Amino acid sequence: MIFASQEAVHMTESKPLAAADEGFNLDDAIRKVPGFPKPGILFYDITSILANPDAFHYCIDSMLKLYKDMEIDAVAAIESRGFVFAAPFCYKRGIPLLLVRKQGKLPGKTISCAYELEYGSAVLEMHVEDIKRGARFLIVDDLIATGGTINATCDMLRRSGAIPVRAFSVVGLPFLNYEEKIRDIGVDTLIEYFGE
Question: Contact at 8 Å (CB) between 97 and 90?
């Protein structure tokens, strides 16, 4: 079982945006489910954020504040909960949203990248024709654990001639050492959980 402490807003190479500044405790809005998807795991369920308009509003507003001065041409959102946070951000910024999906889910010509899971491997894909050469990408997911999906997305973008500039996630689990694996771009999270 993971027994977690929490710290609001984690940013690498950026000025922190404290949840206290907004008067909102994001930890209270995240459902913790012990024993899911298997015994010994504590699952951080962000669907409870989506069911709480104040929490969801806080997350999107925080993204807009974090990146208000950053040159971002597009967002690569990782399946599937990353889509939910990326879509309103892209709408507000007026920039394209590209989907990063599991293998076999996209109908057009794709670029793919395999990555390692705790037990096995998986493959992510993107529509290659939607990735513009030289475009600066923000990568969005709901939770960063080991960093495998972020690295795979960076790989696809770079091979397509684009530039991953930053990664965002609502939740970060730094005790799984994702920062050791994601070295080329900074990672921003709104809340982190520590410990096992």
Answer: yes
Task: Write down the pLDDT at residue 53.
Answer: 96
Distance CA 10, CA 89 (A): 19
Average pLDDT along the chain:
88
Q: Which residues contact 44 (CB under 8 A, 6 or more apart)?
A: 30, 31, 32, 143, 171, 173, 193
Largest interatomic CA distance in the chain: 45
Residue 27 DSSP one-character state:
G
CA 170/CA 85 separation, integer angstroms:
9
Phi, psi of 130 (to 5 degrees): -85, -15
72 neighbors 95 (Cβ within 8 angstroms): yes
Assigned token pair, 94: 């007026």
What values do phi and psi take at 22, rounded to 5? -95, -5
- 128 token code pair: 């290659």
Query: What domains are defined for the chain?
Result: 5-194 (3.40.50.2020)
- For residue 171, what pLDDT is reported? 96
Tens digit of pLDDT for each residue in 86-102? 999 999 999 999 999 99
